[in-house]
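Lecture notes, continued. The same structure-token format from the folding unit now serves as the input rather than the output. Read the line below as a description of shape only.
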């Protein structure tokens, strides 16, 4: 019954968000301090603190439209909202490649974050309108395969192209991708089952009935005030978890290439070594999400993922003098945040009332993604002070271990509703 939904919605959404991740993560390759791969650091006059700031400023802009985006997606149209965002972030991504000074590049990155900020909560609303609870962890995971997939694509394509064309043309070319995908998104995606002509009447009735029962099960007995909606304990815990989640994800991504420095790798080898842990990530995301849906359990999957990630990152630092052992533990640590996305956002979508879900998930993602600025910035600052990345990665590892402990404060999964 679910095959057409999975084949129709997930691939289109996956490629759409993969493009956004390519446009936000390609600078992790371009920012490598090895001038034989990229001259960005030299051209824009950046030190390590400025590198972290350039990578992280995206997330200051990224908080701007998270809450309004979730609200508009719930009350208006996720499909139309994301279409507008595709145009906006394409223009801003091209602007990053046209920047001539550090401040211009920083401003373009900030605007890129603002242009992409409504997409994530809008997609969570769209998926919740199409996939019941028994399928939602897998739906979230398959869609979020965009994160490791984008890093692999950016690492291999950007890494190979940088040596031939330079960082500016490469970033401009990749910034044009949203305009190519916009018509496909517009004509293939619909907001709800009842809006789709290609779905059978039997499947449409099944989805509408099941989703209505699940929504009724989490509705509060009375209307909540604005403060009650946004300040309930569940929301605050999810914000803190998501903050440390993003500190690790983007702190590691920004400075991962620095761990490869001095080993004599070519640009193609850099790309391969950068891509390998994210390829491993994609496999783990599918396995963990399928098991989470199968046993209807979320928080232990979340806690265990963060625990393995944090311990592996700390071990990679302790083995820093043994490159391949250190790299192997990095390959175990880096998947953590992406693998955790399915249980993390499934908990949010299963426990928050439908009437407030979009806006509240937008708030969680907005505040949590400040970690995407803090993680690279703190990692860059600690690296500049200490002269290496050891202290930076230790701090990121301890932060994700704290998130693992907080996961036990989240509610257990409710029984699956049957139509």
């Amino acid at each position: 019954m679910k095959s057409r939904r999975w084949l129709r919605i997930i691939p289109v959404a996956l490629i759409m968000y993969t493009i956004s991740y390519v446009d936000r993560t390609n600078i992790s390759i371009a920012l490598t301090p090895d001038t034989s791969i990229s001259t960005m650091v030299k051209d824009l006059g950046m030190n390590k603190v400025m590198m972290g700031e350039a990578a992280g400023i995206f997330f200051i802009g990224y908080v701007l439209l998270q809450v309004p985006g979730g609200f508009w997606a719930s009350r208006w149209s996720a499909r139309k909202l994301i279409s507008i965002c595709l145009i906006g972030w394409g223009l801003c991504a091209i602007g990053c490649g046209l920047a001539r000074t550090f401040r211009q590049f920083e401003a373009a990155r900030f605007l890129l974050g603002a242009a992409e900020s409504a997409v994530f909560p809008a997609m969570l609303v769209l998926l919740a309108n199409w996939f019941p609870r028994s399928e939602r962890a897998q739906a979230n995971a398959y869609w979020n395969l965009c994160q490791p997939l984008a890093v692999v694509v950016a690492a291999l394509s950007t890494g190979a192209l940088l040596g031939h064309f330079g960082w500016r043309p490469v970033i401009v070319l990749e910034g044009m991708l949203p305009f190519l995908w916009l018509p496909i998104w517009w004509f293939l995606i619909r907001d709800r089952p009842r809006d789709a002509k290609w779905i059978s009447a039997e499947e449409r009735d099944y989805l509408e009935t099941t989703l209505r029962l699940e929504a009724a099960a989490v509705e509060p007995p009375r209307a909540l005030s604005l403060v009650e909606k946004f300040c309930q304990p569940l929301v605050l815990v999810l914000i803190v978890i998501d903050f440390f989640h993003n500190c690790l994800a983007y702190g590691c991504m920004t400075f991962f290439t620095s761990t490869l420095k001095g080993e004599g790798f070519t640009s193609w080898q850099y790309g391969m070594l950068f891509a390998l842990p994210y390829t491993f990530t994609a496999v783990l995301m599918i396995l963990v999400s399928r098991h989470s849906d199968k046993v209807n359990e979320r928080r232990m999957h979340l806690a265990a993922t963060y625990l393995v990630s944090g311990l592996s990152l700390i071990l990679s630092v302790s083995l820093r003098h043994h490159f391949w052992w250190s790299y192997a533990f990095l390959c175990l640590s880096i998947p953590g945040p992406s693998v955790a996305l399915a249980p993390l956002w499934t908990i949010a979508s299963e426990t928050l009332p439908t009437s407030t879900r979009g806006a509240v998930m937008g708030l969680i993602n907005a505040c949590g993604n400040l970690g995407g600025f803090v993680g690279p910035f703190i990692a860059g600052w600690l690296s500049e002070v200490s002269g290496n990345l050891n202290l930076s990665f230790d701090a990121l590892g301890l932060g994700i271990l704290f998130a693992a402990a907080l996961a036990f404060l989240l509610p257990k999964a409710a029984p699956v509703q049957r139509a």
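Point for the exam: DSSP finds 22 helices and no strands in the chain.
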